[in-house]
Amino acid sequence: MKLQRKVQNQDGFTLLELLIATTVFSVILLLCTYGMVQVGNTFYKGSTLVRTQNANRKAMDTISQALQYGGNDVRTNLGGGTGTIVDAATGSGVFCTGNLRFRFVKNEPVRTGQIALVVDNEGAACSSYNNANTNDDKELLGDNMRITRLEIVESSGSYRIHLAIGYGDKSVSEDVIDPATGLCRANTSSQFCATSEFNTTVIRR
Questions:
Q1: What is the number of H-type helices and E-type strands within the chain?
Q2: What's the rounded Cα separation, in Å, for the pair 96 and 74?
């Protein structure tokens, strides 16, 4: 009696096929990762720009309403020209209207121990930049935001306000915002820098 062996063909992947499949999968995974990074950068850029614009709008509204309803007693320690409350070239100073006092420092981002635009209820002390009471201080800008331009000019009972702010890191070795133009530097990743600029005119009431 003869025993017959059944030989079964065992088909499978060759080493070359496995290498090709792994390469294709790696390329697809790399493209997906790149796409997710780009989406994340776009979202972060949009979020940074929105926060910067909202902060500028809030600061502009606060200054505008204070000047509009503060009466005729707008005071400053800056000594600008006729009708000039804050000159565009002024780096820091104080201006007051009613009971509100605004202290500002240009081109310095908000961080621990550093203000950019603070409002308090010490309008009677407008001649002084120093702050006797920090309990009522309110910083109008967010972290890493700074004033790049502030100009307030009074003319015939109306106030022209120009406020520009920027968002971005500043260190001894690098500043993502050009202080001369107030714009993000060309070699800066756009998601880490944003600027916003508003102009308005209000009439004193």
A1: 1, 11
A2: 6
